[in-house]
Amino acid sequence: MRRPFLLAAVTASLVLAACGGSGSSTGSGSAGGSGSTPDAPTAAAATAPAATGDQFGGDVCSALTKAEVGAATYPQGAATFDSTDTQTDATTGKAVVCQYLVVFGDDPSIVGVAVSLMDDTEYGTRTEVSLIAPREALTGIGSEAFLVQPAPGIFEVWVTGANGKFKLGAQAKDTAIALATIAASRD
Fold first, then answer.
1. Integer angstrom CA distances of residue 82 from 1, 21, 33
2. 171 — phi, psi (to 5°)?
3. Average model confidence (pLDDT) across the chain
4. pLDDT tens digits along 114-132
């Protein structure tokens, strides 16, 4: 009984961390697999909000591939990529958050990784605050990156990339750093 509660709490924390301050509204995809499933990064016709630049070719879900998300290390064990779910900016309607949903065994889809576009204000104020531990500067990811732990069991890497700022959240520190490095190379 304790494990489902813990998974629900961690998933809720990851979702809240992914959404925090990004100016997003309710998701436009669903956990049931109707969201897009990126095989490889591709540029979409839509562009990211002006405040965040032209990140990931205008498609936040092209930050990672389904193979990369499925191959990541998760505290729950091996995962299978299921789908993506996006959250949109309330004023522009453009996707600013991509949640990569995974399945562990027969468990329903949960957020394995989330990528959120950020503006300069959010990036500057939020990297100064970490609820669990002081932020940690990282090298080799974008032009500037910090590891932030906003809640127990949630790790975020805040990145200044070539085309703007984003954060990548995961449940394991090494996973967040590894996937943020991949995403930064596509920004």
1. 24, 26, 6
2. -90, -5
3. 76
4. 999 998 888 777 666 666 7
